[in-house]
Design a protein that fits this description.
Blueprint (H helix, E strand, L loop, with lengths): L2 H16 L1 H4 L12 E6 L3 H12 L3 E7 L10 E5 L6 H14 L7 E6 L3 H4 L9 H14 L3 H10 L7 H6 L3 E7 L22 H10 L6 H8 L15 E7 L1 H14 L3 E4 L4 E4 H14 L4 E10 L10 H13 L5 E7 L11 E4 L3 H4 L5 H6 L3 H8 L2 E2 L10 E7 L1
Parallel strand pairs: 1-2, 1-4, 2-3, 4-5, 5-6, 7-9, 8-9
Antiparallel strand pairs: 9-13, 10-11, 10-13, 11-12
Helix pairs in contact: 1-11, 7-9, 9-10, 12-13, 13-16
Length: about 400
């Protein structure tokens, strides 16, 4: 088997394990008696809804997914919105979801389907803050290089649905939230900014983080945060009827890929499933690690890397990691790698990631690798040499998948 096919097979294995049609049924209880309402948000939410109806039959409900990630459902309405920067469609759908929850009560059952991407898709600003102000803040935070946990903590303060507010809106109905984790550490409060989990942060902390990352919020946002906000705390009685369950996580996908590689005769080393940091810096560290590894080793890792915008190119954390890794390896023989986002979208580009090998740098004829990295233009670089990984919507999301193969 060609090495690129082998690496792509490992990535496909990791995605397949997290596909809701393969994994959700085992976490789903028998359909409760009485009224059942299904809600959800995230890149995988439509696929999750499809999997629920495959087990339960037609259901009442509404989920919000990314444009292009829709799935056919029998009764659950699928709404589409923008990601990673929210749009008016997401706001309207979130408001309709809140209106739907206003109709549930004692004795009803709500199933919430939550996955990565829900932070942007499930968007309804607090009173006094406009969508345009939240859009600009989101764009600025994404460009700042701030880790996703920090970004989501700020989002919770400014949302009518995040940080436990969605679960509070469903009270006193019973709620089960089934989640696919795409966050380092698998904290339910970080997945989609925790719409069913109480918020332990504070408005003061959000202001401090904005200052720390050099992001200046709109005056209305600053005023709202200085006034203290109105969070739903973890001990809020309205959360007492909600149960949160993570049923799919990055560790499971890495383990499946590791098993496939071991079957092929490789020794596998997993560096971790929750690695965070600047993509190019982590790539340098991983290159140094790979250069010391014995032949026949596969090095796996996951997590969520970030990119600080320095240029105006087309890039994403996985592509930037791959390019920085290739530069650091400098054509080292017998070392190949794949790095992709399991949702099929790296940054804002409709590209999952890239594959590199010993010839990556020498294949470049139109773009300098170093210039592309300096300009955050990794996607353009890999497009020019034909080494992008394009999957289309994978309908799941367990974050980054990285595999370095020492042949």
């Amino acid at each position: 088997m060609k090495v690129n096919d082998f690496l792509r097979g490992l990535f496909d294995c990791a995605v397949r394990v997290a596909d809701p049609m393969q994994s959700l049924a085992s976490a789903l209880p028998p359909k409760p008696k009485g009224r059942v309402v299904v809600i959800g948000a995230g890149k995988a939410s439509a696929r999750m809804a499809e999997a629920v109806e495959a087990e339960w039959g037609p259901c009442e409900g509404l989920v919000i997914t990314r444009y292009g990630y829709e799935r056919p459902c029998q009764g659950i309405e699928i709404a589409s919105a923008s990601h990673p920067v929210p749009d008016a469609a997401g706001v309207a759908a979130a408001q309709r979801m809140l209106a739907l929850l206003d109709t549930v009560g004692q004795g009803d059952f709500v199933l919430a389907l939550i996955s990565g991407g829900g932070s942007a898709l499930l968007c309804a600003p607090v009173d006094g803050v406009t969508l345009e102000e939240k859009q600009q803040l989101t764009a600025d935070l994404l460009a700042s290089g701030a880790p996703i946990g920090t970004i989501n903590g700020i989002r919770k303060e400014l949302s009518a649905v995040k940080g436990g507010r969605l679960a509070a809106a469903a009270y006193p109905a019973r709620m089960l939230a089934l989640m696919i984790s795409d966050v380092p550490g698998d904290d339910p409060g970080d997945i989609a900014s925790g719409p069913t989990v109480g918020h332990a942060g504070s408005a003061a902390r959000a202001l401090s983080e904005l200052d720390n990352w050099g992001v200046v919020p709109a005056p209305a946002i600053g005023a709202y945060l200085r006034a203290g906000g109105d969070p739903v705390r973890p001990d809020d009685p309205r959360l007492s009827t909600t149960t949160n369950v993570i049923y799919a996580a990055p560790s499971q996908s890495l383990a499946a890929a590791a098993e496939q590689a071991q079957t092929a005769g490789y020794t596998v080393e997993i560096l971790g499933d929750s690695i965070e940091g600047e993509a190019r810096d982590i790539a340098k560290a991983h290159a140094a690690h790979a250069l010391k590894a014995a032949p026949g080793t596969l090095i796996l890792s996951g997590g969520e890397l970030t990119v600080t915008r320095r240029g105006d190119g087309i890039g994403g954390p996985n592509a930037e990691y791959a390019l920085a890794l290739a530069i650091a390896l400098n054509g080292q023989e017998n070392i190949h790698a794949i790095t992709c986002d399991t949702d099929g979208v790296d940054g804002a580009a409709e590209v999952a990631g890239a594959i590199i090998g010993p010839d990556t740098l020498t294949k470049a004829t139109t773009l300098s690798p170093q210039d592309a990295l300096a300009n955050n233009d990794a996607h353009s670089f890999f497009a020019s040499i034909g080494d992008q990984v394009v999957t289309g919507p994978t309908l799941t999301n367990v974050n980054d998948f990285r595999a370095i193969l020492v042949k």
